[in-house]
């Protein structure tokens, strides 16, 4: 089985993904969206052996019936389910260790998040010193 330092890194990654995008999250439970993000970001989903559908099915299988989140223990069970699928040629223990190595030390990425555009055109359009007031409107007077 994995060493204690490896499991600590796994737990840290679990916590980081569990709180990602949720200001109220405690880091003790992970929702399905963040579980799928973890699998995608850590390359557990490879598109051939493990797909997004497999990840969703495993999440549903390991969580409690009425629950919408998984605990760290359920997370480890989910990894045990996915490991042999992801690393087909390896034994269960080797596959699980390989999956742990994919996840250890990882945190959620923000790839594809919109960045602020900083170009001359945007600067020119948003420069408040160049704004001018419109001429005053006059009603009822003849020129």
Structure description:
The structure is a single chain. The model has no long low-confidence stretch (mean pLDDT 85). Helix content is 50%, strand content 4%. The chain is built from six helices and two strands. By secondary structure, it is mostly helical.
Largest sheet: 2 strands, antiparallel
The averaged pLDDT comes out at 85
How much of the polypeptide forms β-strand, as a percent range? Answer: under 5%
The total strand number stands at 2
The whole-angstrom Rg is: 25 Å
The helix-strand sequence is HEHHEHHH
Q: Give the N-terminus to C-terminus distance in angstroms.
A: 92 Å
How large is the count of helical segments?
6
Instruction: Describe the strand arrangement of the main beta sheet, using strand numbers.
Output: 1-2
- Shape by Cα distribution: elongated
List unreliable stretches of 5+ residues.
Answer: none
Which structural class best describes the helix and strand composition? mainly alpha
Helix content: 40-55%
